[in-house]
Amino acid sequence: VNNCGLQLVIQTSSIADKSKPFEFRINKEQSSFHNRLLQHDLEKNYSGRQDNTNFGSSSSITFPVLQRTAEEKLLNSDRLTLERQKLTVCPIIDGEDHLRLLNFQHNFITRIQNISNLQHLVFLDLYDNQIEEISGLSTLRSLRVLLLGKNRIKKISNLENLKNLDVLDLHGNQITKIENIGHLSELRVLNLARNLLTIVENLNGLDSLTELNLRHNQVSAIKDVDTLPCLQRLFLSFNNISSFEDILCLADSSSLSDITLDGNPIAQETWYKHTVLHHMMQLRQLDMKRITEEERRMASVAARKEEERKRESHKQTLLKEKKRLTICNIAHQWEIQQNRVALVASLNQDKDNEPCQINGSAAYVLPEESRSLDTILSSAVQGLSVLESHLVEVEGDTLCLYGAGALECLDRNWSVQTAGMIVTVSFMFIEFDEIVQVLAKLKIKFPNFVHLKFKETNLVMLQQFNALAQVHHIEQLTVDPQGNTVVSFTLWKYYVLFRLNHFNLQKINGVKVTENDIVMAERLFGIFAFVASSELPQYRMLSLLGESRRKQLHYLLEGKGKKSGTGSEEGSDNRRNGGESTTRAMLNYTTKDFHMEKLEEIKERKTFCQTYVENLVKEAADINMKNESLQKLWPQMFIELVRDAVIEIRNKNSYMKLCLQRITDQKQ
């Protein structure tokens, strides 16, 4: 029995506690929300009163039964407060069907029940309990305010019949998804702060919603908010919104006037305020601060600059993607070309239709099949023809050339500034024989270039490095193992150092060259160069060397040079003067095309010589045959000549007349 003479029977236990007047306890999270609730028209008649509640006895074993005296009902006829009564269940409320306001704040209730008979209830407060599921409300069709904050609810459900709901407070629960509220067309205030939401969606149908509180969730994207015609206040503080694209739909909301985004990653960006104000010109407050016209103007200017920056960034992204696709296309065409070359080589080696090896895979190739494969490869190239077949790019101090067509860029009129800036020239997906033809142009076009890079260029033999001598000067050489099998040779670096000794190379494949490397290179290949130069005919040597080198060669051949140590001293002098030694100059590289031209020329000469000799032999055979025939016929012919002469001069007078007649005829 308390001071007011009220009694509550719960099974066999009794509660002796002084009833407290109804009040809204406003915490930090609920401040703005509950301040507005205090203005609700249902509260105006009940503030400042004290409930004198009388708990009567009940025959129920499980639920307590609540009864009030007639006097208590007269004082607070439609209002009942059971705040902080340590209730674990909702008591049975008899004879209170007319109740309009019911308060169960700060108890331990786990389930909503025993209130289905309160069909006139308008205000139900179950804040700070242990409720896990929304239930037992289907008959409360008149309910306007439902407060279920700070409970254990995981899902929004069973609100189908509460179509007149005006305020719904579900903050401080464990809700992961907004659902089952699209029918609440009268709802004005929805509080879902401090839940587990990640996406804001399923808001269609909330045509009267003016305030939405989503503070302290895990929201990273927002949808459907632009479909809310009456939304004015949206609270999104302390979520995971990181870009304006995540809240882009807010820009389409014409009614939104107040929004908070503080505590999100997006709020840390320099462009945050300007971008939001630029896209939401209707806002009056941002992060609880009033927006001035000066801020709007500055936001508009900053937003335009940001848009320009984004467009430029987007343009760069598109260029990078185009570059990536172009390089992929070039690489694909290169692979098709290499496969075709391998196929042709295999067919030339195997004329008997035996299995051939292409890129490590065995296949039995017939002539018809080879034509079919060639057709397939051609169609594949045509399918990629929409992309560029070559690419020229300047990255910092590096000129990157992709594809054979890129070599044509060396004939451009490069600006002095750009040409002087180039230090490295990189070749990719280009046949080395095609590169050889433009090497001499590099130093002319790019006077400061000192570094050559090769990747997927078919460097397959040491002899090809001889061609680099025409560059005149490089300090670094990089040969990528991809597409350059020569790198697998153990001594390739030493050969490069020996052949390009006059360049004074500093690095090969990023590794610094030491004096020991140079000495080793000389030991390994010095005799090789000497043999090459000594076995070459003098006229051939002169044709390979320039005018200055010819004079030096004549000087050496005349014996005026030093007898001993000439090779090493000559090499050292040449390194100082920037020229290559005579012996090294003999080591040249002939491209496949040039070699094929020479072979064709040799073939033509061979054919001519063969034809000429055949004609001579035929003519000699005819002469010999005629001589043999003459030898056989000559005795008989001689006899006949003698006989004819004897017969002719037998009559001297007749012979004389005949001779005179012949002479006369000849004179006439």
What does this structure look like?
There is one protein chain. By secondary structure, the chain is of the alpha/beta class. Among the domains are: 294-341; 391-555 and 581-585, Leucine-rich repeat, LRR (right-handed beta-alpha superhelix) (Alpha-Beta Horseshoe); 598-665. The chain is 37% helix and 12% strand. The protein is built from 16 helices and 26 strands. Helix 3 crosses helix 4 (293-349) and helix 4 packs antiparallel against helix 5 (367-383). The longest helix has 58 residues, at 592-649. The chain is rod-shaped. Mean pLDDT is 77; it is low at 1-61, 355-374, 376-386 and 560-578.
Number of helices in the DSSP assignment: 16
Assigned CATH architecture of the domain at 391-555 and 581-585: Alpha-Beta Horseshoe
Largest sheet geometry = 11 strands, mixed
If you consult CATH, what is the topology of the domain at 391-555 and 581-585? Leucine-rich repeat, LRR (right-handed beta-alpha superhelix)
Please state the structural category: alpha/beta
Q: Strand share of the residues?
A: 5-15%
The rounded Rg comes to 52 Å
Helical content, roughly? 25-40%
Topology:
Blueprint lengths: L8 E2 L2 E2 L16 H7 L27 E2 L3 H6 L3 E3 L10 E2 L7 E3 L19 E3 L19 E3 L19 E3 L19 E3 L7 E2 L10 E3 L7 E2 L10 E3 L22 E3 L11 H8 L5 E2 L2 E2 L2 H57 L6 E3 L2 E3 L3 H17 L7 E5 L2 E5 L13 H6 L2 E5 L3 H5 L2 H7 L5 E5 L20 E4 L12 H8 L7 E2 L2 E2 L2 H20 L3 H7 L2 H11 L8 H12 L4 H4 L6 H58 L2 H16 L1
Parallel strand pairs: 3-5, 4-6, 6-7, 7-8, 8-9, 9-10, 10-12, 11-13, 12-14, 14-15, 15-16, 21-22, 22-23, 23-24, 24-25
Antiparallel strand pairs: 1-2, 16-17, 18-19, 20-21, 25-26
